[in-house]
Amino acid sequence: MGRRVLVTGLGTFWGGRLAQALERDPDVEVVIGLDTEEPKVHLERTEYVRSDENYSILSRIVSATRVDTIVHTFLVVDSTQVSGRQLHETNVIGTMNLFAAASAAGSTVRNVVVKSSALVYGATPRDPRWFTETMSRKATPRTRIERSLLEVEGYVRDFAIDNPHVEVTLLRFCNVLGPRLSTPFSKALRLPAVPSVLGFDPGFQLVHEDDVVRSLLFAIGEGRSGIYNVAGDGLLPWSETARICGKPTIPLPFVATNLAAEPLRRLGVDIPPELLDLLRYGRGIDNRRLKEAGFTYRHTSAGAADAFIQAVRLRKTVGDRDSEYRYEEDVEQFFRHSPAVARDGDPA
Amino acid sequence: MWGGPTSTPPPTPPPTGTPDPLARPAQETAVTGPNRRFGRRTPSTAYAPVSSHQDQGLRPGGGPSPGDVSATGRYHRRMARPTQERSTALVPVSLPRPAEEPEPLPDPRRSDVDEWGRSEHMRELARRLYAPVYERWFRVEWEHMDRIPADGGALLVANHAAAVPSDAPAIMHGIETEMGRPVYGLADHFFKSVPVVGTLWARNGGVVAQPDNAYRLLREQRQLALVFPEGTKGPAKTYQERYRLRRFGRGGFVEIAMRAGVPVVPIAVVGAEESMPTVARVPAVAKALGLPYFPITANMLALGPLGALAYFPAKFKIRVLEPVTFDVPPDQDRYSRSRIMDASEEIRQSIQAALYDMLQQRRSVWFG
Q: N or C: which terminus of chain B has fewer CB atoms within 10 Å of its end residue's CB?
């Protein structure tokens, strides 16, 4: 019997990409995607279920579909997109409901993968150059996104301890760059001049979006439980990242940086407070544990930046080719469920 | 993992016959199909011997050396009985490369800044600028530099002095020019939070003094690291207290050296104290500016604002003492607190004794 996988956040970039990858895997029998929004990518056999943002219907779905694997990609790690309240609902309450459903009596869930962020390590001058998975952050969290992610990780830890029969994998990703992903971080690198903080040139670690999807797939399965950092090799100075992207840097003052970033925010440049900390102190996360588990990266930090900027250049010339898909419920339902549609290897 | 910090996740089953599962090259690059995720990767045959045989077999000039019987034997066993053994042995080009060896990923770096933020280019420039100061101004003289290991990790431990410490650049410059080995200077995280200074400091080999950083530098990368266990208490002391060593912290440097399995090399520096002596401290200003200390130096009194940066031309003498090794296994979680404190105090005493000895022989602050 193949895997039955539930993906949260199907309408987000990661949920969509992951569902596409799961569909290509013949071992995966069923893919169910949950989100408040419709999927933005073309999917062949994923079943989309609309839910509210904190997944109150999740336990019904789990018991009805008998999924064995949940991939929780719907954690907001970008504070510029949502209000504080919504952030709390999505991250904390959503995760809480997710684990409540997964640990309910008679639950068939045996495998949970959670996509978290290296934001949980913070960025301070006291940091070690490389955070390993067992290290804790050096300062109390100051931003709401960090607080909410720490709360989420607390739920993950509790769930893992309470349910030893479930393999729980927590992946912490560093800043992601890639041809298609759009985040405040990638938007900053697409500006004519890249913001920096005067007098600071911290080390940045980057990971390519394909490596992110591949690592999520890698995390599904037996013997992968635990916490893993996901980040490309190498710690690039911010100035070098800008140079790879062929951009000059525009330094913000080192005093009242947040205030100075305000006019930029008015101009529509998303600069989350976490990024300002990172532009000062940087962060390195040790990726060796995932490598030792057998995962191989396809891109280094510098390679990710290079792949990103090549895609930006291409898009500048030929335009965006990915945005043509629109989800039409009737059409999707027809292809999935109409008896008129012939299906390979499926005894009708 | 979830219970405590020491447990590790169950690893994927290592291929049989491989002595060290962590040393094997990762093998996923070749596998791209949709089936790769849940299936176990098939263990491929012994990579470790292949790489070791390559080290020996690909020697310039070809072929194992006459005395190298074991290498030859292994070599012949490893080859899948080619028709002409000897000619294959002499033409290393035809050796089959291990298929599992991953292609190095493209890494389009644009600078030579390493993972610690140190740039050899920047360091070279700094050395060129600093050379006249080192040679003409401080006229640095070394004793027993040969006691610093030529390779492998070692923790250099020195006394710390001068309001803006002048000893760290002198020690780093001396070792880098004489021995051609980079030295990483471990210092308070305070530096990292100062704009411009923090960046220049990192580019020149500055690393936040933090146990995990030190361990990685010393044990995994086998580098030289310089540390001043007195911390800011050393440079903060006034002229009256010169050459009297402060407490060596909590002996963390000994613990790190034990864990990393490297020797501690004590270094005594004479001259730094007089290059920028502190006359008085102003704690109120230090507190207002968020500095560890705020000194009024003799240089300021003599030279005005310029004195904040200009050193007096004191003669520098640097003596390297016998390296101290610890008879404990590396990589332990804990080490005996009493042994740490004893070793730390012993090293402190040896540096203190060396300083007194050097001061006894010093006739002039300026001419040595």
A: C
Residue tagged 């004590």 (tokens): B266
Grade residue A41 by pLDDT with cuts at 50, 70 and 90. Answer: confident
Residue B67: which pLDDT band, with cuts at 50, 70 and 90?
Answer: very low
Inter-chain CB proximity B35 and A25 less than 8 Å = yes
Whichever domain contains A93, its CATH number is 3.40.50.720
Q: What angle do CA B48, B52, B53 make, to 5 degrees?
A: 115
Long-range contacts of A218-222 (CB under 8 A, 24+ apart): A218/A290, A218/A293, A218/A294, A218/A295, A218/B37, A219/A113, A219/A169, A219/A171, A220/A3, A220/A5, A220/A69, A220/A71, A220/A111, A220/A113, A220/A169, A220/B37, A220/B38, A221/A111, A221/A167, A221/B37, A221/B38, A222/A111, A222/A167
Contact residues, chain B, for A241 at CB < 8 Å: none
Residue B325 has pLDDT above 90, yes or no: yes
**What's the domain range around A102?**
3-337
CB-nearest partner of B9 from A200, A226, A234: A226
Contact assessment for residue A170 and residue A227, using Cβ atoms and an 8 Å cutoff: yes
Domains located in chain B, CATH noted:
46-94 (no CATH), 120-361 (3.40.1130.10)
- pLDDT reading at A316 higher than 70: yes
Q: How far is B27 from chain A (nearest CA, A)?
A: 7
A104 has a pLDDT exceeding 60: yes
pLDDT, average across residues B42-71? 39
Strands (E), chain B: 141-143, 154-158, 183-187, 206-208, 224-227, 264-270, 278-281, 295-297, 317-320
- As a whole number of Å, the end-to-end CA separation of chain B is 58
Q: Do A296 and B29 touch (CB under 8 A)?
A: yes
pLDDT for residue B71 is more than 90:
no
Distance from the Cα of A164 to chain B's closest Cα (Å) equals 10
| pLDDT of A163 | 93
Q: Which of A174, A299, A289, A149 is nearest to A225 (CA)?
A: A289
- What is the rounded CA–CA span in Å between residue B163 and residue B298? 10
- What is the rounded distance in angstroms from the CA atom of residue B13 to the CA atom of residue B109? 35
**CB spacing of A198 vs B192 below 8 angstroms:** no
Total domains, chain A:
1
Element (H, E) at A225: none
**Hey, what amino acid is at B318?**
I
What ipTM does the predicted assembly reach?
Answer: 0.87
> Which residue of B lies nearest to A292 if distances are taken between CA atoms?
B22
Dist. CA A134–CA B2, nearest whole Å: 9
Query: Does A223 score more than 50 pLDDT?
Result: yes
What's the pLDDT tens digit per position in B282-314? 999 999 988 888 999 999 999 888 888 899 999
Given this model, what pLDDT does residue A344 score?
Answer: 67
Q: Are strands A111-117 and B154-158 parallel, antiparallel or unpaired?
A: unpaired
Q: What is the mean pLDDT of residues A131-153?
A: 92
Coil, strand or helix at A139: coil
Residues of A in contact with B27 (CB under 8 A): 294, 296
Mean pLDDT of chain B: 79
Classify residue A138 by its DSSP letter: S
Task: Provide the sign of the torsion angle of the four alpha carbons B174, B175, B177, B183, taken in this order.
Answer: negative
B/e letters for B303-341, b = 16+ CB within 10 Å, e = fewer, are eeeebeebbbbbbbbbbbbebbebeeeeeeeebeeebbe
